[in-house]
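User: I'm putting together notes for a lab meeting next week and I want to include a structural view of one of the chains we've been expressing. I don't have a solved structure, so I'd like a prediction I can at least talk through. The sequence is below, exactly as it appears in our construct file.
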Amino acid sequence: MNATIDIPPGGPWFEGHFPGRPILPGVAELALAVDALARESGRPVSLRGIAFARLRQLVLPGDRLELSSRELDTGRLRIELKRKGDLVANAEFLLGNPEESRGVAAACVASSEAESAFPGLDALLPHRVPMRFLTSILRETTDGLACTARIPDACALVTDGHAPPVAAIEAAAQAAAAWEAVRRARDACVASPRIGYLVALRDIIFFTRSLPAERDLLVSVRLEAAAPPLTHYGIEVSLDGKPVTRGTIATFLTT
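Assistant: Thanks for the context. Below is the predicted structure for the 255-residue chain, given as structure tokens.
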């Protein structure tokens, strides 16, 4: 299956990501690819997970992406996104119903009150509303951070009050960026946000078809490996004590 995805020259997809340097969020690439597959096939596409995804190049306002897909076996779909023949991203989608979350406890548990020892989010993250999902830092551990997040209704990922489950991955990526900024602030005694990119996903499991906007999510990230500027994190996101997604992400921090 082949399709073309025209990235708008501006507007909601770029609001808050990032002010003065508009870049299409990596999760938006994946969401737009799913939408294009649904449009071309004439039926909804539901993801139960993402075996892997590699986001190799930045996608900018006005880009035109060529999507190609091929089915490997039942429920597994390889996709490629190219721009003028150059590979921008590739992934393997796991199609089907999300994992049944009944009886599966959310592993990330934290107090509902934020700690006050951290710098404000404006000082930690370059993201701004409506693409800033993080709302507070709950606690820091030796290898990560627990936060709350909320997907604003004004976010371009939201339709009819709901966002695709990949939106939870963006919340986790922002938690990872916040933790890196907290550690920099501790070392330098001053907080300074730096732009980072989501560059890879691995073994992502979804427990829901969609996420409600304007609801509090619990997000935790845990360091798995670091070779700066590339860092790998285990992520968990839950809603009302039930898991939303789990897996591993990799982020690239700019200088």
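A couple of points you could mention at the meeting. The domain at 2-95 is CATH 3.10.129.10 (Thiol Ester Dehydrase; Chain A). The CA atoms of residues 75 and 155 lie 29 Å apart.

User: Perfect, that's what I needed.
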